[in-house]
Design goal:
11 strands, mainly beta
Length: 127
């Protein structure tokens, strides 16, 4: 069972930045799709950004385009989400997800396509 751990969340004012990290024992990047998802209060978990299998493409939801950047460091087996110009509507628990099969295109944005999850890290953006 793959164990993932997110870190880097916190409380920040609107316009500020945070960088989230995700890693864990046995976490090996490169083959399967990975992504960041968030769950706002009283809402379902939803995609923020993802990288499809073998790093072939990167995808973002419209509301974070130009503000968030997803990346990986294969040498460290760590994935990141750089979040700039944060807005109050970005508040939520952020989860990293890893698929157990190859996914092409925007399929990595689908929550049900992820097989492994971390426990999440809280991001709170104050106005």
């Amino acid at each position: 069972q793959l164990q993932l751990v997110e870190s880097g969340g916190g409380l920040v004012q609107a316009g500020g930045s945070l960088r989230l990290s995700c890693t864990g024992p046995g976490f090996t990047l490169g083959t399967y799709a990975v992504g960041w998802f968030r769950q706002a209060p009283l809402k379902e978990r939803a995609a923020v950004s993802c990288i499809s299998s073998r790093g072939s493409s990167t995808h973002y939801i419209d509301s974070v385009k130009g503000r968030f950047t997803i990346s990986t460091d294969n040498a460290k087996n760590t994935m990141y989400l750089q979040m700039d110009n944060l807005k109050p509507e970005d508040t939520g628990v952020y989860y990293c997800g890893v698929a157990s099969r190859e996914l092409v295109g925007t399929r990595c944005l689908h929550v049900h396509n992820m097989a492994y999850w971390g426990k999440g890290t809280q991001v709170t953006v104050s106005s």
